[in-house]
Amino acid sequence: MSANSLRLICISMLSVVLFLSCRKAENIVVNERRNLVVADQGNHSLLAVMPPEWRQVPSTEFRMLNYRFGESGEVFVGRSRGGLLTNINRWLGQFGKPAIESADDLPKVEVLGQSGVLVEATGDFAGGMGRAARKNAGLAGVIVAIGDQIITVKMMGGAEDVAAEQVRLIKFCEGLRISQGGSQ
Amino acid sequence: MAKASPSIPVRLFRFFSGFGLAVTCLLLLLILTWLSTLEQPAKGLYEVQKRYYDAEAWYVVPELNWLPKINGKPVSLPLPGAYLVSAVLFVNLFLGGIIRIRKGWRNIGVVISHFSMVSLLIAGFVSHHYSKEGIMAVYQGDTSDFAQSYTEYTIEVAEIVNGEKTRPYVLPAERLKSLAADESQTFQLPDLGLDLEVSGWMRNSARVKVDKENAGQDVIEVDGWALRWLETNPTEELNLAGCHVDVITGVEGVESKRLVLHGGDPNACTVTIDGKIYGLRLMREIWPMPFQVRLDKSIGEYYPGTRKPSTFQSDITRIADGSEQSFRIKMNEPMRYGGYTLYQARWEDRGDRPMSGFAIVKNPSDQWPKYSLYISILGLTIHFGMKLGGFVGKSSKSKGKDLTSNKATV
Q1: What is the ipTM of this complex?
Q2: Cβ-proximal residues to B215 (8 Å cutoff; 6+ apart), any chain
Q3: CA-CA distance, B22 to A78, in Å (whole number)?
Q4: Coil, helix or strand at residue A153
Q5: How many Å lie between the alpha carbon of A184 and the closest alpha carbon of chain B?
Q6: What pTM value is reported for the model?
Q7: What pLDDT, in 10s, does the model give residues B200-259?
Q8: I need a surface site. Which of A175, B172, B243, B303 has the fewest CB within 10 A?
Q9: B286 and chain A: CB distance < 8 Å anywhere?
């Protein structure tokens, strides 16, 4: 093999290496889909129809379903301990409101086939559970007793934002259902 | 007259089919296996396999503390990767042991033995490129129809209709895991009319809450959450990947939306585009099975005072094509079905219900090493049998000769 041909081979190999190292990553087209499996039904039995105006964010230990809306509004579904009234008064207490003795006068919302109560409050939120205190805050939430469990759907944010989202919250609560599985 | 030197192709053929190359390859494989075993406790099995044995690992620089140091830095000793060495050994065995070898009845055993080694290397190649492995975790009484990768992360994108997930699009895990932290990659989903730009890939990360106002400029915060980079865990299964995703739409006037995805998130993050809700989730790759497994009974025991199972077994029902069949899966007694092998790899009982973890392997070359060994036994038996026969024949002949010569002397 002559020196010229060796030189030619070296130059071509170097050009290939330079070309490969300089080229920009090309876009990848994704068409692959997979079939649904039991894991796609979620980590808990609750199935919710979220309004498109909200966005789902990761669940946490105390929030089975976790949503955000607008700039700083949040909606979350959780389980709680204690009775219905205890939870209502805890929520009201966070806004400095006096405790009530009966939930009978509160508006009712149908959740998972049971009658839940709608709790509303506005004012200064005292903070708690990792959330900072906030002035002119709003709360709208539904508490329902299902068997020996308490399910809560709590919406918090600016007072005006919460008022504007309340209709969606009620529709969301009414749309909650237990997953039947096998959603192929 | 001077002998003409052989041409370059002849010299190349001789080199690639020679004994020298075979011995060098085998020695290199021995050294690579030894060094990778030594590195494994510190670096972890996944990392070591990737660095030493992957097809992309053309060379490897062993990272061992006891290597001699120059100016405080350990000596850098690059070695060819095991995949490359195996490929060269394959060529060498094929050319030398099957093509170049002298053919004839005398060498038939040797040719068969070489063929068995070649087929063993082919089995390794097929297994490396085409086998798949995952884990199916099932609690007693539950039914499962999927396995999940131990290590490979993917991003799934699915439209959510009436609160239910539709069949998701799956981004290629191979590309995601090769992303560097400062690299970005665009994935186009033409069916959804979306582009996803994935950036800031972290092999191990934590999702942390951040205050929007107090978050530093370099922190990417979405809805009060950000990612924190973590040192890679040597046990790859424990690493939780993280990344940022910009969802870019072709819809005019609709801005791109950024998400922070984390491998530990139990559910998807959503974006709404043009009234449609899309869920995006960074998760370990899911592998749907063509059958279902119902765990009827899970039995096991821990070593005293530990959470390490000493023994376990599972009674399962396999549901496929409308029929049900019961099996017992024990240690070293897997269930095989439709090219899948299911063996119990984990067992756990945290008080509520016991859980069995079944490792599911689909390897087209699953049984090939066994057959290769049978071929090898056959080849070596023929070869040594012939040698023995020859030796016995020769000995008896020379004995006969000796006797005749002794008689003559007498």
Answers
A1: 0.82
A2: B221, B226
A3: 66
A4: strand
A5: 8
A6: 0.80
A7: 999 999 999 887 666 666 788 888 889 999 999 888 889 999 999 999 987 777 788 999
A8: B303
A9: yes
* Token pair in block for residue B114: 């070489």
Domains, chain A, in order of start with CATH, read: 30-182 (2.60.120.1690)
- The vertex-A97 CA angle with A94 and A99, nearest 5°, equals 100
Query: Which tokens go with B232?
Result: 């890679």
Write the single-letter amino acid at B47. E
User: Strand pairing partners for B262?
Assistant: B242
B9 reaches A (C-beta below 8 A):
no
Helix (H) or strand (E) holding B402: helix B368-409
Contact B223 A55 (CB under 8 A): yes
Taking chain A, what is the end-to-end CA distance rounded to the nearest angstrom? 65
Which residue from B278, B277, B280, B276 is spatially nearest to B261, judged by alpha carbons? Answer: B280
d(CA B135, CA A37): 14
Chain B residues touching A65 at Cβ < 8 A: 267
Are B97 and B25 in contact by the 8 Å Cβ rule? The answer is no
Query: Per the structure block, which two tokens stand in for A23?
Result: 């080229």
Question: Rounded to an integer, what distance in angstroms lies between the CA atom of residue B18 and that of residue B89?
Answer: 10
3-state secondary structure of B285: strand
In tens, the pLDDT along A84-132 reads 999 999 999 999 999 999 999 999 999 999 999 999 999 988 877 667 7
